[in-house]
Amino acid sequence: MKISEVIEVNSSPDRVWELFQDVPELATCLPGAELTEDKGGGKYAGAVSTKLGPMTATFEGEATVEADAAARTGNVTGKGVDKRGGSQGQMKMQYAVEATEAGTRITVDADVMLAGAAAQFGRTGLIQEMSKRLISEFVECVEAKLAAETVEEAAAVSAGEVKGMSLFFTSLWSTIVKFFKRILGRSGDNAG
């Protein structure tokens, strides 16, 4: 499943790039994420917990982060296993940080692959809706960290926990609305 997002923040590209290179600090902005070990060389161990409707999955695994400071681009690859539910996940993500008139644009392109029980939610479009909502929370956290006046204030900012049922129903509602808009749009085309 492909996920592409463009994020705009009101901060300089240098500050945004600096935050994106501080992986432990940036991880605090990912709802449900926990770094458990810095293995050196851009490799990290950790876990990502998420609630997919009635199912809770905690993917434990590793991620590798590579960055090109001159181009302000980076790659993240990761994989993990939910030992309790038997699901597996892999992610490949590219990001780019670039200056805009108002601040900075961050472009994110990710390819997420799920197997096992978690994969059934990918077919319904709910994963994409949930991803958009989680990215929104991530952006709010990043902006708050960048706006902090001291290192202590920035360290105190973190994403909240993932609220599974609320997130599930909000995402489900958004998917239903999009479905009906497509149907109504088609019937409007036929009426004309």
Brief digest:
This protein is an alpha+beta fold and 192 residues long. It has helices at 13-21, 23-27, 119-123, 126-147, 151-156, 164-191, and strands spanning 2-9, 33-40, 43-52, 55-68, 73-81, 88-99, 104-115. The relative contact order is 0.19.
Written overview of the protein:
The chain contains six helices and seven strands; from the N terminus they run E-H-H-E-E-E-E-E-E-H-H-H-H. 17% of the residues are buried. It has a seven-stranded antiparallel β-sheet with strand order 1-7-6-5-4-3-2. 39% of the residues lie in helices and 38% in strands. The longest helix is centred in the C-terminal third of the chain and has 28 residues, at 164-191. By secondary structure, the protein is an alpha+beta fold.
Span from first to last CA? 35 Å
Q: Give the fraction of residues assigned to helices.
A: 25-40%
**Mean pLDDT level:** 79
Derived from helix and strand composition plus strand pairing, the structural class reads: alpha+beta
Keyword list:
192 residues, alpha+beta, 7-stranded antiparallel β-sheet, 38% strand
SSE arrangement:
Blueprint: E1 2-9, H1 13-21, H2 23-27, E2 33-40, E3 43-52, E4 55-68, E5 73-81, E6 88-99, E7 104-115, H3 119-123, H4 126-147, H5 151-156, H6 164-191
Antiparallel strand pairs: 1-7, 2-3, 3-4, 4-5, 5-6, 6-7
